[in-house]
Amino acid sequence: MAAGARSWKPAWVPTSGCTRRPTMDEFDRAQELEALHLAASLAAQTAASRPLGASLAQCDDCGEPIPEARRQAAPGCTRCMDCQDRAEQRKRGGL
Ligand SMILES: [Zn+2]
Questions:
Q1: Residues lining ligand 1 (ion), CB within 5 A?
Q2: For each successive 10 residues of the chain (95 residues), what is the average pLDDT?
Q3: Would 28 be classed as within a structural domain?
Q4: How many CB atoms lie within 10 A of CB 76?
């Protein structure tokens, strides 16, 4: 053990400026943000943990049967190729 370990102190201690406490509004907003983040990450986890291979037999969007080849190529898919394309374009901010 180093001899100076017990007497270690920070080289610089803030003496003023950092003492302002957050207001209740700021607490509320922080909590709201935290809740949003939590909901988002929970949703992401739920989506990620959806069992692979549970592809739908029919497209979620148009109800057309999803070809077996597509269901095997994209385990967990819920849309036919056309609707998946459209959904991805929407997500990218296209149409
Ligand atoms: Zn479809």
A1: 59, 61-62, 80, 83
A2: 62 65 87 90 70 75 92 88 93 75
A3: no
A4: 13
